[in-house]
Amino acid sequence: DVWDGFPQARQRxxxxxxxxxxxxxxxxxxxxxxxxxxxxxxxxxxSPIIAPEFMACPISSVLFSQDVTGRTPHLRQQLDNxxxxxxxxxxxxxxxxxxxxxDVADAASAVTTAATWVVDAGDPVTRQV
Length: 129
Hints:
The protein is mainly β. It is 9% helix and 39% strand. The protein is globular, with a radius of gyration of 15 Å.
């Protein structure tokens, strides 16, 4: 759910994240895959980025394929596919791979990597590889 009705709770959480080493947000359940920047002050693009957010694609839910870039300035990538998120974590790096399914109704359907993003320890800014 969105945080719009809970601004104080959101700010407390963001403040705790800003004070943490290497926070990463893993989410889903929006019917799209996304890579986003989490800023210290929500919707203030001039405030520091404190964490990346990786939103997993839905495996079988109806897709929301509407372009959200106009209302989501912190969006780095939007993926309108069925699939899942595979995450590998090492002490130095987090790698997030968006795995997508060609046809969710076909159990033999191919699974491919649609995008791969990396976060280095100590740097909250993601980069696509």
